[in-house]
Amino acid sequence: MASSNRGGLTERQFQALHQSAVDAKANAYCPYSSFRVGAAFLTSSSIITGANIENASYPVGTCAERVALAKAITDGHRGGFRALAVATDITPPASPCGMCRQL
């Protein structure tokens, strides 16, 4: 598929980002809902992943997208974010929550 259909990413970048998000689901901590989510940010230099982390107090959990962004920032990335991929185990895929859409 042409890169114009992939948000300006090459097919290789798109596939790597997608697979990174899928792989990140394995690190999800979701003992209450069993709803695994993986996220991957493509920066100008690398792919940073994250997974959702649940807490017994529901609002205290952290979405995969926010985990990946926090990881990127604490690893020193300050811009150059090009794309985000999110992966779940459901079909059709879930879209990011309202809070994560504000990232």
Summary tags:
3-stranded antiparallel β-sheet, 103 residues, alpha+beta, 2 helices, 3 strands, 24% helix
Per-chain topology:
Elements: H1 11-24, E1 37-42, E2 47-51, H2 64-74, E3 83-88
Antiparallel strand pairs: 1-2, 1-3
The major pleated sheet works out as: 3 strands, antiparallel
Q: What portion of residues belong to β-strands? A: 15-25%
Count the beta strands.
3
- Record the strand order, biggest sheet: 2-1-3
What's the Cα radius of gyration?
14 Å
Distance between the termini: 28 Å
What is the structural class? alpha+beta
Low-confidence regions: none
Gross geometry: globular
Count of DSSP-assigned helices = 2
Mean pLDDT: 92
Helix and strand succession? HEEHE
* Estimated helix fraction: 10-25%
Briefly say what this structure is.
The protein is α+β, with helices and mostly antiparallel strands and 103 residues long.
Q: What would you note in describing this structure?
A:
The chain is an alpha+beta fold and 103 residues long. 24% of the residues lie in helices and 17% in strands. It has helices at residues 11-24, 64-74, and strands spanning 37-42, 47-51, 83-88. The protein has a three-stranded antiparallel β-sheet, with helices on both faces. A hairpin with a 4-residue loop joins strand 1 and strand 2. The longest helix is centred in the first third of the chain and has 14 residues, at 11-24. It is globular, with a radius of gyration of 14 Å. The protein starts with 10 loop residues before the first helix and ends in a 15-residue tail after the last strand. The relative contact order is 0.20.
